[in-house]
């Protein structure tokens, strides 16, 4: 009974105190979304639809299992993930494998693995190239070169990886981190930018009204995302909670709508393959 009353009070108080941020209720003190790891992943992996609408979808069993059981990737799982990574990134990943992943200023460990789509290159009203996955313009990393690249990792449609920041570097790539919580959140999230071009929706006048190709990503991208997830989790010493940019920033004004057309089942399938190396006894 007492619990119910307290719950009701918290509900009433939440908008006024604004301690919990966004649709998945990020607590700015604990730097954690609301609920158990399974509940957090369920909220953070809702399907991102056109214009950033969200719809519920089931967690792939492998993700539900990892969130429930906790723990960390085994040595075999980590090795399997590294073996999948392409050169030259694989050598880099091996070189940095024992360096702990980022933590926040107050010592909270890395916890969230955030999947983005680049929404670049942007084709405006032009058609997408016919051979999207082989197109040099689409797959170039040149768009993302900057004094301060926006994410840790850039992953193109051919599965090539450019590491802009190591996973040990506290960084930010969402409005939740950069506009709402600020530097205190740095180190809690790592960010993977996955290349997917965009063009205007019919009649659109601004970059908030765009769509991506279908399928949204290539098999190589799902495979690498799974490998990066296992590798980053191994560096963190625990299974990270996977998330999407748009769900992290849910209900924050001007939030981005990425990743579009993300096939969560496909990601789960690739992850299952890597996680299953333990069962296979290899
Ligand atoms: Zn993004």
Structure description:
The chain has 282 residues and is α/β, with parallel strands linked by helices. It has a single domain (22-48, 59-275), classed as Peptidoglycan recognition protein-like (Lysozyme-like), CATH 3.40.80.10. It contains 10 helices and 12 strands. It has helices at 2-17, 37-44, 61-69, 75-84, 89-95, 136-139, 175-181, 219-236, 245-248, 264-275; strands at 20-21, 26-27, 32-33, 47-48, 54-55, 112-117, 153-155, 161-163, 189-194, 199-200, 210-211, 241-244. A hairpin with a 4-residue loop joins strand 2 (26-27) and strand 3 (32-33). The radius of gyration is 19 Å and the shape is globular. Mean pLDDT is 93; it is low at 1-16. The protein binds zinc ion.
Could you outline the blueprint of secondary structure elements for this entry?
Layout lengths: L1 H16 L2 E2 L4 E2 L4 E2 L3 H8 L2 E2 L5 E2 L5 H9 L5 H10 L4 H7 L16 E6 L18 H4 L13 E3 L5 E3 L11 H7 L7 E6 L4 E2 L9 E2 L7 H18 L4 E4 H4 L15 H12 L7
Parallel strand pairs: 6-9, 6-12, 7-9
Antiparallel strand pairs: 1-2, 2-3, 4-5, 7-8, 10-11
Helix pairs in contact: 4-8, 8-10
The structure holds zinc ion.
């Amino acid at each position: 009974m007492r619990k119910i009353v307290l719950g009701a009070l918290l509900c009433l108080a939440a908008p006024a105190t604004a301690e919990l941020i966004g649709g998945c209720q990020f607590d700015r003190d604990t730097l954690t979304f609301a609920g158990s790891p399974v509940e957090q992943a369920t909220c953070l992996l809702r399907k991102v639809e056109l214009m950033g609408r969200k719809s519920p979808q089931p967690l792939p069993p492998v993700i539900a299992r990892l969130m429930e059981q906790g723990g960390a990737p085994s040595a075999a799982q980590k090795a399997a993930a590294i073996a999948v990574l392409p050169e030259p990134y694989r050598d880099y990943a091996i070189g940095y494998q024992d360096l702990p992943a980022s933590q926040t200023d107050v010592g909270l460990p890395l916890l969230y693995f955030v999947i983005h789509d680049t929404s670049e290159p942007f084709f405006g009203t032009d058609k997408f190239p016919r051979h999207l996955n082989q197109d040099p313009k689409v797959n170039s990393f040149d768009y993302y070169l900057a004094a301060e690249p926006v994410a840790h990792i850039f992953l193109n449609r051919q599965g090539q990886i450019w590491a802009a920041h190591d996973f040990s570097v506290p960084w930010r790539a969402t409005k939740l981190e950069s506009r709402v919580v600020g530097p205190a959140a740095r180190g809690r999230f790592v960010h993977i930018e996955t290349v997917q071009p965009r063009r205007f929706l019919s009649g659109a006048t601004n970059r908030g009204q765009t769509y991506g190709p279908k399928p949204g990503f290539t098999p190589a991208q799902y495979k690498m995302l799974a490998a990066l997830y296992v590798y980053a989790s191994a560096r963190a010493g625990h299974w990270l909670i996977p998330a999407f940019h748009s769900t992290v920033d849910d209900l924050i004004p001007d939030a981005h709508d990425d990743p579009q057309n993300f096939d969560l089942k496909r990601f789960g399938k690739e992850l299952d393959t890597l996680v299953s190396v333990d069962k296979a006894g290899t």
